[in-house]
Amino acid sequence: MASKELRLECPSCRARLTADVLTQKVVAWQPAGSATPFTREADLADDWARAARRVEERHGRGVDRFEAALSKEQERANDLDALFARSKAQREVDPDAIGARRARGFAPDSDDPAPHTDAWIERLAQAERAALAARARGLAGWEHRDPSWGFFEYGSIGLAVGPGYTEAFGLEGASDSELDAALRHAARHPEPTVRLLPVADFEQNAERLHRRGWRVAGLDAVFWRDLTLPIEATPRRSAVRRALGGDLESWRRTLIRALELAADDEQRRPERLAHEFDDPAWQLFLSSDEGQDVAAAASWIEGPVAVMAQAATQVDQRGRGHQQALIEARLRAAAEAGATTAISLPEMRGPSQSATRSQGFTLAYHQSLWVPPATD
């Protein structure tokens, strides 16, 4: 006997099925109340084949998504590994650099830390933060300011919020609750960035940001110069002076022209810039050519560290040595004020950065820039 069919009906739902008792397979079934004829074995086989194909397709898509996510995660892990290695390398102390500084009068117990140590990097970063905080705080007195701008603190974390920037720094030593509060605040503003220093707890802080979905967007180089070394005089045709008293308005107008800012700018940047550098602690400088002010620059002195900040030259005057002259003047003024180290901020690109290198600036460290997870 090739087959022996048995027909059954459920007494509760009235569904019916037909089973082959020899092969122990269901060969046909009919739902309760259905007027459709029994589904035969061949139809069931087709249904199963289609279902199997759908499952396989979904599995394939799931595997592809998983592999893509895994690849992305591996890339992020590789980025972190590279940053960890860079952080470790930058923390290595150069004995020759220490010896050279001691030979110039820096005693082993001096408060001035040796280059490229954690204490040295943190001291430079503190000066950079102070300069950025001064700009953010300077906007507080501007009548047109956005109420959300300012400088905010969450434990050791500082958050500077202004037009075009949202910068968080100082994660070193911050608790998880302080970090979460700072990140929530930063995420409310456009293009928030967290700056992470290559110091001893870099790996721990990188992991904390990584767990919260933040990712590395790039690196910013900070350059430095030892102000105990001679400052080279640069040949120039320009005249450089400190912007004091009546020169302050000229400094602002010159910077506005050099940055090519329109007076009707949507964020009123000319007025805003005037307030950002309103703190009297800023040292402002002008460079002129034939009696016409054509370039402007600013520096901030924080203890033993001088920060070379905003600098710009009018388009028709670029390439004529104005930035070199301004850098030399700022370095001399900083040394006279007692600073032993100068740094240039990452915003100094192109000609300004070339000018700093011509005055003996070299790489101090790279700070990694972290951004929040992308939102759809």
TrEMBL record:
Residues 238-376 form the N-acetyltransferase domain. GO terms for molecular function: acyltransferase activity, transferring groups other than amino-acyl groups. This is N-acetyltransferase domain-containing protein. It comes from Rohdeia mirabilis.
